[in-house]
Amino acid sequence: MTNHWIDLKNSDCILIMGSNAAENHPISFKYVTQAMENGATLINVDPRFTRTSARADIYTALRSGTDIAFLGGMIKYILDNHLYNHEYTAEYTNAGFIVGKAFGFNDGLFSGYRKNDDEGPSMGSYDKSTWAFEMDANGVPKIDRTLKHDRCVFQLMKKHYERYDLETVSKITGTSKQDLLTVYKTYSATGKKGQAGTIMYAMGWTQHTVGTQMIRTMAMIQLILGNMGIAGGGVNALRGESNVQGSTDHCLLWHIWPGYLKTPRSSNDSLDAYNQAYTPASNDPLSANWWQNYPKYSVSLLKAFFGDAATKDNQFGYHWLPKVDDGEVYSWFDLFDAMYKDNIKGFFAWGQNPACSGSNASKIREALGKLDWMVNTNIFDNETGSFWKGPGMDPSKIGTEVFMLPAAVSVEKEGSITNSGRWMQWRYQGPKPLGNARPDGDIIMQLGHHIKDLYQSSGEFADPIINLKWDYETHGEFDAHKAAKAINGTFTRDTTIKDKVYKKGTLVPSFAFLQADGSTASGNWLYCNSYTEKGNMAARRSNKDASNNIGLYPEFAWCWPVNRRIIYNRASVDLKGQPWDEKDWVIRYEGQVDDGKYVSGKWVGDVPDGGWFPMQNPDGTRRTDSRHPFIMRKHGHGQIFGPGRADGPFPEHYEPLECPVEKNYLSSVMVNPTAVVYSTKADGHATCDPRFPFVGTTYRVSEHWQTGLMTRPQEWLMELQPNMFVEMSEELAKLRGIQNGERVKVASMRGALEATAIVTKRFKPFQIGPATVHQVGIPWHFGWRWPETGTEETANLLTPPAGDPNTRIPETKAFMVNVTKL
């Protein structure tokens, strides 16, 4: 979330797409309700009429997987009707950047496309060099802030979305033209100064072969309307777990180190080469280019890993850390594909249930059967730990040795969580773990000690293990406070910064103090400032608001980075440092003026995105000692044109891998040409296949949690939601002769399951061009382990082996199925 949960109440218009927030993120809806009580309008766009839809002022439906077409039409509407914030767009975004002459787009493909002819999962890739900006003699992007140059981003965007007219968008999405206009007109009104619009989304946007670009399309809308950095604005992802944000920040994903540093590639053969590869350079004196500090963060991380053993002479232990092969990917899909092909023989399943949660779950279960060993660390047994007992399994033919490590539940352990709004909150231990269960920290520490002991006596390449700093215990038990302090960071020797001496062992006050010479250690630069000499910032519980009283609460918990509650908040002010919105201002500059110019002053309100002077003086003259507000971007501007994405600098509508139509109404390219599609005998996909005529999608319900591990064993929750079901429209039920409550079979190219039919008005047929398209929905909380009948299976038996090329997240929200009465 660029903003935070409480800030939702400051919005004038809330658009919820790809989420059923009222049911699945009820805390968020508390603040949505407050906004509505203050006069805000709630818009909900969803294939199914949900509890969120029931609370919305405006509701309309769209076919799953067509959100880019829907939002692309909104971009066209905003541009055609001059509803964008011109000053914000011209000054704070890259709308005025001139794109090189080599860039082009034709019939669904951007310039530089190459189809993949080998056996890899990627359908193709782009040579992004043709997407580069034109540079001036100083190496700074050429900018036309009038936005009139025919190759500036603004004009290219206008041309790109010219095709997204109401009739075409309606034909693709199934949304009526009148409903499209209502949504566009209502949300676009937030482009006026003093108005704020926000977007709330969840897995309904991410789990597509174009998921990243769905979010980018909305980010573009927020930029041209001036909704980024302001109170009640932003792009806000609703996480499905309390600590998804925190686990991502601390490198849960394979391609990053903590703090979103890059995982080194094998070609990064030295620390200098690694830092040079990932440290952007900008020649614009007004660009903060914050990632230029990359070496400070990477060296401090290595010092946190290896302590005194990491020295300048050994490149701070850089060679001790593993490198990933160039061109290879190690995502969820790829790991289980390798496991299925007998290339991985051991597996830790820690706090997860991939036998139910993984797309194309039958393949995952087969893959588990090819392992030599698996360790299942969890609070209960589940379909993964007992996969060998599951449907279709023959234990006599499975050689996988399975170990169960019982883990403590959340209330039985101390530590922090970082919620969707980036708030790091400290939680204290309640009861002690029951039986043999241990907190995860204790399990990890004990495992590490055993591995260290083994490498002390024998082992190839022992240095990484022996030298690993492993001192996060007190009285033999994991100490979350020691870990938190190490994450924050310490000075490793007496260090002088700006004439102040910091003694060895002192906690680093902020990431601005981190150094590249080994004098600081920090386990995650983003969290430097979270546990300082002042104490545990995450444990604070003050209910005192900031002076502007918009719900920042700066002394309640701690928010990365440096306790900033709204990211890019210097875009919430005009060039002179005064708020676009005088009522709900985030920051403002209070300065002393002499002869029309600022001579001194300070920012008040939220922690500013950099403490420089405003871009202009009160008399309108430009300053040379300021910085552009989007400090994490190399050129300092919000990216309408995104040249770093795998599938194009502008989002483009493509159909899901499995879709019900034979034609893309915007081009001759049907599917994202860079999507990843896995093809083995356990995989398969069906497009316009008469055997699978209906669109399927998955979702959550309130009564169950994730794969149901913590909820399905509970009798009272099973009484509320006892079994797998499939929702369908009254029209489809009539077509198939299915009555409400009857048991049916839902099948896809990959498998089938039984479900109870729920015939409902919540789904309606879509008119897609000349065709009537039906959509059904199924929850993904079930699995054979509970209830004990063994007949209720996971929806992921049906979902396809395809994913987004940027994230490789699976496309579980739009795939083709059949529904027949049993």
Automatic annotation (TrEMBL):
InterPro entries: Asp_de-COase-like_dom_sf (IPR009010), Formate-DH-alph_fdnG (IPR006443), MoPterin_dinucl-bd_dom (IPR006657), Mopterin_OxRdtase (IPR006656), Mopterin_OxRdtase_prok_CS (IPR006655)
Location of this chain's protein in the cell: Cell envelope
MF terms in GO: 4 iron, 4 sulfur cluster binding; electron transfer activity; formate dehydrogenase (cytochrome-c-553) activity; formate dehydrogenase (NAD+) activity; molybdenum ion binding; molybdopterin cofactor binding
EC code(s) of this entry: 1.2.1.43
Similarity section: Belongs to the prokaryotic molybdopterin-containing oxidoreductase family.
Molybdopterin dinucleotide-binding domain boundaries: 697-815
Domain Molybdopterin oxidoreductase: 2-381
Keyword Oxidoreductase: yes
Descriptive protein name: Formate dehydrogenase subunit alpha
GO terms under biological process: anaerobic respiration
Coiled-coil regions listed: none
Keywords: 4Fe-4S, Iron, Iron-sulfur, Metal-binding, Oxidoreductase, Periplasm
GO cellular component assignments: cell envelope
Repeat as UniProt keyword: no
Cofactor(s) needed: [4Fe-4S] cluster
Gene that this polypeptide is encoded by: fdhA2
Organism: Desulfotignum phosphitoxidans DSM 13687
Main location per the UniProt record: other
Lineage: superkingdom: Bacteria
